Amino acid sequence: MTHATQSTSAPKPQTQLGLHYRVAMPHPESHLFEVTLQITGWHAAAASGDSSSSLDLKMPVWTPGSYLVREYARHVQEFGAEADGTPLRWAKLSKNHWQVDPGEAPDPTVRYRVYANELTVRTNHLDGTHGYFNGAALFFYIPGYQHLPLRVEVVPPRSTWHITTALQAISSETATPSTVGARIFEAADFDTLVDCPVEVGEHQVYAFDVLGKPHEFAIWGRGNYEPEHLLEDTRQIIETESALFGGLPYERYLFLLHLSTQGFGGLEHKDSCTLNYARFAFRSDDRYHRFMQLVAHEFFHLWNIKRIRPKALEVFDYDQENYTPSLWFSEGTTSYYDLAIPLRAGIYDAPTYLKALGKEITRFITTPGRAVQPLSESSFDAWIKLYRRDANSDNNQMSYYLKGEMVTLLLDLLIRDRHQNQRSMDDVMRHMWQRFGKDEVGFTPDDLESMIASVADVDLRHFFQRYLHTTEELPFNEYLAPFGLALTPDETTNLPPFTGLTLKSDSGRDVIKFVEYDSPAQQAGLDAGDELLALDGLRVTADQWGDRLKDYAVGDRLHLTFFHQDDLRTVSLTLAAPRPTSYKLVPVDHPTDAQATALKGWIGIVPSDLV
């Protein structure tokens, strides 16, 4: 694995330090990883002027691909440093910055523990069944030396546990470098270490070849997946995405899958990805398709964000936020393709694709925050908003994943319509790969917009201004019409009047989870967290709420009784006109031959196939 760029802090290349990390987990039930960092050559570097006399160590505050400062240093404990068994003086200078004074002692060794009991794709998890860690959440780096190669020794607690990672093994008892027997690995630099999560345990490993290159699916946890089916569909996704970009930019690739109770998530890496999914979600077609969309999404990222990345992410600064307005493309465009790739791969058919796309459009239209937060701002503010949801998030936020997907849909339809399906967003992706991705040169927002306009062969400045930088509504039907499709509410009759509140059962209580801005519920004084008790003097539950409302008409005044912070209250609420809660894509009446041809060129069917 190679990197064209390195982390921040000017490199100090004159003296080659030796960096050897050791990760042990002797008591996995404690959830504590024990990490040792042995540094050789430090005194030589100090003597030559390549380093200061003090040793600075920093823990990253975030990990690439997950745009939130997660403060990984909060899990560090029992930090210490020594040289030949003699303790060294050290001090903590900031939340993630330690400084060791080696003095005249031999080269220093640093030891610490990291608490790991958070099972997500971007954190660490250790228990009696397995160990999983991400580099940014486990390892210190030495500022100025992130460019140096390093070694990682992984010590499983039991002989039955094996190690799976995309890191290159340099010590193994078997011919397969990422499985049983591997103990010592090497990384070209700290960025590579961060980019290669490690799974240790008794997980299942399924090896398969695609286009002449080795792949593995490593699965921890029990579930109802069918390995042969899973591998075959993954193979089809790999081949489909490879065809789009013109080949696979790696020598081997690893899928790490954690099966949990209600998990969902993914994190991309250059030669691997980590997935988290519900263990019993593989028999239902809808949920299985969603999993394959997750696979397609994270695999697509090995091009779009890991190699084709915004200028602001060309060089990672692990110490603070890395701001960019372009995550709408890096994540949103990837989300558009995660629906399209399984269609192209034959995993589901075009009607299933349009149904899934209709659900995505529904999520967008029913999010009030689309009228508040522009798309570029959503990307820029990912660090303080997207991953920090609260009761008001749907009122003031718009996900760059979701609106980016919608804007990409419009762009794809625009390009296809102008060029009779002879050009599409596929061409944008290929050109971005050739110009920026292959050499890992960061792109600017202007670079991206110019590339899309060049492929479309039209001035798109007005388009980008309207749909990236303002909250103007997206004209779906204008762009769908040339393809013989229309967006329409899924239900137009028997809808209850609108209140603007979302009610859910929570531990035996019926709790208001969301109140839409300027809705009847907000005007009446209801708030998220209130416990609803009665409607017009009769008890009401979350399950009954929708049906009870159908007994009323628009303009009727309800009396709602509820607890607000243990204070019993009753308020009046005036019902508003019903609002659609879901949308679907349907063929237009009497589609023309041109519309039928356009739709077939886009998704392989004509409008009459949807009737």
Keywords:
Immunoglobulin-like; Neutral Protease, domain 2; five-stranded mixed sheet; 611 residues; globular; 16 helices; alpha+beta; single chain; eight-stranded mixed sheet; 26% strand; disordered N terminus; 3 domains; 28 strands; Pdz3 Domain
Mean pLDDT value: 94
Computed Rg: 27 Å
Low-confidence stretches: 1-6, 173-182
Distance between the termini: 50 Å
CATH topology of the largest domain: Neutral Protease, domain 2
Q: In one word, what is the shape?
A: globular
Query: What is the highest CATH level, the class of the largest domain?
Result: Mainly Alpha
Instruction: Work out the number of β strands.
Output: 28
Strand neighbour order, sheet with most strands: 5-4-8-2-1-11-14-13
- Category from helices, strands and their pairing: alpha+beta
CATH-scheme architecture of the largest domain: Orthogonal Bundle
The major beta sheet can be summarized as:
8 strands, mixed
Assembly of the depicted chains: single chain
What is the fourth-level CATH superfamily of the largest domain? Neutral Protease Domain 2
Helix content: 25-40%
Structure description:
28% of the residues lie in helices and 26% in strands. It has 16 helices and 28 strands. It has an 8-stranded mixed beta sheet with strand order 5-4-8-2-1-11-14-13. The protein has a 5-stranded mixed beta sheet with strand order 16-17-18-20-19, covered by helices on one side. Helix 3 (227-245) crosses helix 4 (285-300) and helix 4 (285-300) packs across helix 5. The radius of gyration is 27 Å and the shape is globular. The relative contact order is 0.08.
